[in-house]
Hints:
Blueprint lengths: L5 H57 L2 H8 L8 E8 L4 E5 L16 E5 L2 E10 L2 E11 L1 H53 L12 H42 L4 H15 L4 E8 L4 E7 L4 H7 L6 E3 L6 H4 L4 E3 L8 H8 L4 E9 L2 E10 L7 H78 L5 H26 L11 E3 L1 H11 L1 H10 L4 E6 L7 E3 L1 H17 L5 E10 L13 E8 L6 H6 L16 H11 L3 E6 L5 E8 L22 E6 L2 H13 L3 E6 L1 H13 L6 E5 L7 H11 L5 E5 L2 H6 L9 E4 L4 H11 L4
Parallel strand pairs: 13-15, 19-20, 19-21, 21-22, 22-23
Antiparallel strand pairs: 1-2, 1-5, 3-4, 4-5, 6-7, 6-11, 7-8, 9-10, 10-11, 12-14, 15-16, 16-18, 17-18
Helix pairs in contact: 1-2, 1-3, 4-5, 4-9, 5-9, 9-10, 9-16, 10-13, 11-13, 13-15, 17-18
Amino acid sequence: MPYVPIRKRLMSITLMTSAAVLLLSVATFLVYDFVSFRHLITRHVATLGRLVAANSSAALVSGRPEEAHAVLGALRADPNVVAAAVYDADGNVFGVYPPDLSPAARLPLQGAMGYRVDQGHLIGREPIMAGARRMGTLVIESDLGALLERVRVHALLAGIILAVTGAVAYFVSRGLQQQVSRPLLALTAAARAVSDRRDYSVRAPPSSGLELVQLTDAFNHMLTEIQKQHSSLQAHLSRMLLLQHITRAIAERQDLQSIFQVVLQNLEQDLPIDFGCLCLYDDAGDHLRVVKVGGRSLSWASRLDITEQSLIPIDANGLKRCLGGVLVHEPDTTQVAYPFPQRLARCGLHSVVIAPLSVENRVFGLLVAARQAASAFVSADCEFLKHLCEHVALATQQAQLYAALQQAYEDLRQTQHTVMQHERLRALGQMASGVAHDINNAISPVALYTESLLEREKDLSPRARSYLLTIQRAIEDVASTVARMREFYRPREPQLLLARVSVNTLVEQVMELTRPRWSALPQQRGTSIHLQLELDPSAPAIVGAEPEIRDALINLIFNAVDAMPDGGTLTLRTRQVEAPASVSGEMPVAQVHVEVSDTGVGMNEETRRRCLEPFFTTKGERGTGLGLAMVYGMVQRHSAELEIDSAPGRGTTMRLVFAAYVDDASNTVRVQALPAVERRLRILLVDDDPLLIKSLQDTLEAEGHVITAAHGGEQGIEAFRKAHEARNPFNVVVTDLGMPNVDGRKVAAAIKAISASTPIVLLTGWGQRLAAENDVPPHVNRVINKPPKLLELRAVLAELTADA
């Protein structure tokens, strides 16, 4: 729709106002004449219609259309009536005028009762009544041609008069409109500048005339208020956007330091503030600890002496109100007597807002925001900081809960891992306990005969003696391995005495013991493994159980060889490493590293993480999954460390870290002279293993003792009873623990019941476990572990029969 200039509009108003006077004067007469004439015609037609309707009721009641046509024929007397129709109560045409009126030209029944002008015709509708009953409707149409002709003549006269007066009014209004249009155009220009440029500082120039002055002043006042509201809305919107930005940023973080850093960084940049810091409340010390200072506030922090981790007393600085949950706003710090605001004022920060961080009505910290100018914070800034602190407090609580949950989850995972590890090891020890008994029985004869030959046969060749020593060492390693199969999940006993071990000598022994595995077998497969020995001659000795460490190294070498199916380099390395400084101030102890490295396939992270679990193996049916578990048990018992460096395709290095030997009495094994049996003894041997009985019998008889062997507990009890009744008792009874039907406990109880003074020696592979669990049978005097050692057996017999 085109817009009309205000000048033209004012001229139009003036012209229309001028014309309106004459128009009203002329129109008054014309309208009066027109209305009067039309009213006359309408009243005439209405009278005629009522007469026709009254006369048509009888025709409708009798149902004779010809009478209706006759009544309508009376309308010929009025030349202005052009058509008429009578409708019955059902809306059907009952009669028409003129009689030859076509159906298309018939007047419609629809419409309101009464008379109205429609398209130059006067159309009326009259109800046809018979008493109180409506029988039908009369529709009559009259021609208004005479009235319209009268109107045209009068309109022509009015047009001539208006044209003459309009020309006169045009020239008069042209000069008057400029006095009104100029101020209005100035207001229009000001409004357009505001809408186009969003410049609310534009003002309309002053104008003359009381009404125009009032309009201009009101318009300018409106612009002033809009400018204030716009500035307020812009500031509020920017704060809301800043709050949203900070809230989104801290929601993506889970640690307190990064949350606090984001908050202060955005406040310094976008609010902005000159100095900002976050403090946490320490209720134990009744002070605040500064945990974060904004990046742009560091220079202020050094001048204020409010650096990170510094402490701010509470009562002395008037901060108690803040800890009560009240936001504190000091518009002029120079007027506040407390030391903290005064410190800010001395450094040039003259206004400060301190907002509490609280969750569930508990204040745990404060946000300090300061500016250089006095009264620089308005109420909207304070409200924004209050809402921001609510979000920061919730984010802080969530971060603390997340950290606590992570720690709890990690603790639970470690606990579950430890429990599962211990359960696996305990199950392994229980399963191995039965196997160990049979192995100990099998190797006991070998151990006894080997020790006896080494001690009694003085004419052995050097080679034979070397072979026997190797057999003896292997038996000791087997016995130690069997013991660890039951006990390696237990921590090392504090009272366990260990020996001084030279790691270089031990590595050389292991190299020779494993030579068939890393040299002969690969050559049979057509591959070659090169052994590289790197021994540090300055490596000190360590304190430990030599058989256990040797067995662990053997397992590591076997694993390294298996990891190089196509050959490679096997490296055995020892070196001394200076221990890191002790936090507790104790003298650091040097460390000895023993490494077994290969250039094989390596391990991925999952395999490296699980390789110490019992029964976990990557060798398929060839592996048992116990090798590294045994190594791990040895490391635990020696309070050592096991480090694993491995990556797929880069090989593996297994590193055993031991504490170096320290010449101390607690680490020295004092060898005392063992007592010897000075007389011939009658000894009863009770066991269900014939090989063990035979080896014990041969060994003890070689010592000069009289031996009686009993196969099983029942025979042992019976043999002891008979000897006691014959007054030829046994000096000592040596019995096995695990036997069918009647075990060693029952044998000891039965013998003590016959002769309480007869010493009983329990020979078992479960000796260490019985001692550790305090489960030594009450009737047993001594317990000897299988395989028995000849020196230990002599010492026990000498001790038990010393007073006999």
